[in-house]
Amino acid sequence: MSADRGAGQRKAVRVRIQGKVQGVWYRGWTVDQAGRLGLTGWVRNRSDGTVEALFAGPADAVDRMLEACRHGPPSALVRDVVSEPEQDPGMAGFEQRPTA
């Protein structure tokens, strides 16, 4: 029974990615990666130069996405990834949103 614990649990986190993450296809890359992992949520640029995202889905897939965000697409230079627990928005799909 303990082997299935991580697979069945859902997790949601809000993430702020800092560094050279705008103008390097970070949002498009995030949409692709989240889709491959079966996550729901959104990603957007922020006016302060960071990228913000909300990831929701199976806990192991969210954890894999957080690790991927530390590297990002080839042109990105990620300095930091800060995440905090968030309520699962219960939405379908993963979308790119306008700058906040």
TrEMBL record:
Catalytic activity: an acyl phosphate + H2O = a carboxylate + phosphate + H(+)
Domain of life: Bacteria
All copies of domain Acylphosphatase-like, residue ranges: 12-98
Parts of the chain that traverse the membrane: none
This protein's UniProt keywords: Hydrolase
Entry annotated with the keyword Hydrolase: yes
EC number: 3.6.1.7
Active site per the UniProt annotation: 27, 45
Entries under InterPro entries matching the protein: Acylphosphatase, Acylphosphatase-like_dom, Acylphosphatase-like_dom_sf, Acylphosphatase_CS
Similarity section: Belongs to the acylphosphatase family.
Name assigned to this protein: acylphosphatase
Organism: Azospirillum endophyticum
